[in-house]
Amino acid sequence: MPLKKLDAQQLEEVYEYTKTHTMDNAFIIDLLERLIALSDNHAGVKRYKLQLADTHYNVHHLEKAAACYEDFSIMYPGSKENEYVLYKAVACMFELSLDADRDQTNTKKTISLIKEFLKKAVTQDLITQAKEILQQCYQRLYDHEIYVFNFYTKKKNFTAVRIVTGK
Q1: Distance of CA 54 to CAs 58, 65, 71, 119, 161, Å?
Q2: Across all residues in the chain, what is the average pLDDT?
Q3: Rounded distance, CA 147 to CA 63, Å?
Q4: Helix (H, G, I), strand (E, B) or coil at 81
Q5: What is the rounded distance in angstroms from the CA atom of residue 58 to the CA atom of residue 55?
Q6: Of 12, 82, 93, 106, which has the highest C-beta tally within 10 A?
Q7: Taking the model in full, what pTM does it have?
Q8: Does 27 score more than 70 pLDDT?
Q9: Where are the alpha helices (DSSP H) in 21-123?
């Protein structure tokens, strides 16, 4: 029977079944999304949202995982999982960041997430890793500025060079 035809109780039973049996990730994602939509159990929804984010991350759906982690962090800011969730959002955005010769929007978003994470973090290993990622992001932004500068210099567009350098 398709998941869309099951009620919340039946979906819970299927969810319990998946704990002891191996299921494909696409099925798990569909199940969790359906459970989140139908469940009125607050603690259950919290658990489903975290598992959904982790499942997206495990199958390398990084944009969806990042959105799920950020959503979880906003919905449950005081939860014990919040540090983990913020770090995973950082990891997703960092993996989505492009090389220095490309758009740096995700790099800037990663920096923003790291700053938010560092305000709340207490786990030293995660703090150290986040600071290393932050350093790599700053280096990538620097390399991007050098790339843009060199591009306009080669084109002899000195007006654009002045704009890039701020002089």
Answers
A1: 6, 7, 13, 23, 44
A2: 93
A3: 26
A4: coil
A5: 5
A6: 93
A7: 0.87
A8: yes
A9: 25-38, 42-58, 62-75, 82-96, 105-120
